[in-house]
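Researcher: Quick test of sequence recovery. Tokens follow.
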């Protein structure tokens, strides 16, 4: 006899399938770089966040193997018990130096970092002023914190100002925190960080930035979106190590008191087993490469220009919800329709190009898309091949679904 849980799960799975929102995992065999084997089929990967092409760099593997030989596989405990290894400390020191902040704290993932910060810092009576397109980890962390969650329209500075003005009359001792992605992961656009910083100073609201997709990529030295303006440095800086840096994990950077407080109160850090030392060693090697070899960023930006120029020539309607074209490694091709987006993704895969179909709830309803991402590891001929394939599937399937 079926119980209530089985009945609910069956109904929900049927609904998800009927709405063309069902997701499946594909198995990668071997390297996760630009040239990849997916479900036994060789193809070119245009949906990874490996922006600098470091995920398959052998130097990261050498660093990890060296740490494996010296420190073994598991850390054996949380960082406050027995899990804090010399590899973790060395990586944190390097991250603090690279970001120009006094301290950095290593987390197992960006999700854990954002939840740890927001739940640790905020309480009932506080408020979060957050962009509506922030990453899910910022949304969940904010809601779980117990603070008043104020959601503002995407990159709308007037809405930020009005919301902060409303909160200015809050009782003393409460905290209003501005929270935003730096580079938005589904649209490829960049937050107005200098303006947010100025609003924060005006209203006494600290600024927290999640630079997951900008760290290692944006700015002259790859220090992320905050490097693009001297007036952009946030009070709380979060970034990940599993994208441009090519490894795994995340970190929070800030002043001494912030990091020490998180050590005492960030539950997702306190009660998690520390990352394997070998992963920290690999991330340290990736950070060193990103810092010392600007050629990776230069190739990435050349690839972005080639793709955007080619898309314009082909008449492909790349763009964000506001109709602007992205100038970053994230290039969305909005289709609006879930079924057609899936069909276009399948058509590309049949032609040897892997581009993920992004559908609700990852993006708002009516804005399904192909999320095309560029890497320094892509060769010019591969980008031209993708453009040709995109033109074919768009002509066959996409033109009827251009969003209004």
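Model:
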């Amino acid at each position: 006899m079926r119980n209530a849980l089985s009945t609910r799960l069956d109904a929900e799975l049927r609904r998800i399938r009927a709405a063309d929102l069902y997701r499946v995992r594909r198995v990668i065999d071997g390297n996760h770089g630009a040239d990849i084997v997916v479900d036994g089929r060789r193809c070119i990967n245009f949906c990874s966040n490996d922006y600098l092409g470091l995920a398959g760099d052998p130097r990261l593997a050498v660093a990890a193997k060296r740490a494996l030989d010296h420190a073994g596989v598991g850390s054996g405990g949380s960082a406050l018990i027995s899990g804090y290894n010399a590899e973790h400390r060395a990586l944190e020191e390097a991250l603090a130096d690279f970001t120009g902040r006094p301290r950095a704290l290593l987390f197992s993932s960006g999700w854990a970092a954002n939840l740890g910060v927001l739940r640790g810092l905020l309480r009932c009576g506080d408020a979060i002023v957050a962009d509506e397109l922030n990453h899910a980890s910022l949304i969940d962390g904010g809601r779980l914190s117990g603070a008043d969650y104020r959601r503002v329209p995407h990159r709308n500075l007037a809405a930020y100002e009005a919301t902060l003005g409303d909160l200015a009359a809050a009782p003393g001792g409460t905290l209003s925190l501005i929270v935003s992605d730096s580079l938005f992961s589904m649209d490829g656009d960049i937050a107005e960080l200098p303006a947010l910083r100025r609003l924060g100073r005006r209203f006494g609201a600290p600024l927290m930035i999640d630079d997951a997709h900008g760290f290692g990529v944006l700015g002259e030295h790859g220090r992320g979106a905050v490097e693009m303006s001297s007036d952009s440095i946030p009070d709380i800086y979060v970034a990940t190590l599993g994208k441009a840096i090519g490894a795994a994990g995340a970190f929070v950077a800030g002043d001494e008191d912030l990091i020490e407080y998180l050590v005492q109160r960030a539950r997702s850090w306190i009660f998690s087993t520390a990352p394997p030392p070998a992963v920290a060693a690999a991330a340290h090697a990736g950070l060193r490469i990103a810092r010392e070899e600007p050629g990776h960023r230069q190739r990435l930006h050349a690839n972005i220009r080639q793709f955007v120029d080619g898309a314009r020539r082909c008449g492909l309607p790349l763009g964000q919800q506001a109709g602007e074209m992205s100038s970053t490694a994230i290039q969305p091709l909005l289709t609006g329709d879930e079924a057609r987006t899936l069909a276009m993704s399948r058509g590309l895969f049949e032609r040897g190009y892997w581009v993920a179909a992004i559908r609700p709830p990852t993006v708002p309803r009516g804005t399904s898309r192909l999320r095309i991402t560029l890497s320094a590891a892509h060769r010019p001929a591969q980008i031209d091949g993708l453009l040709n394939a995109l033109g074919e599937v768009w002509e066959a399937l996409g033109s009827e679904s251009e969003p209004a």
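The CA atoms of residues 335 and 398 lie 7 Å apart.
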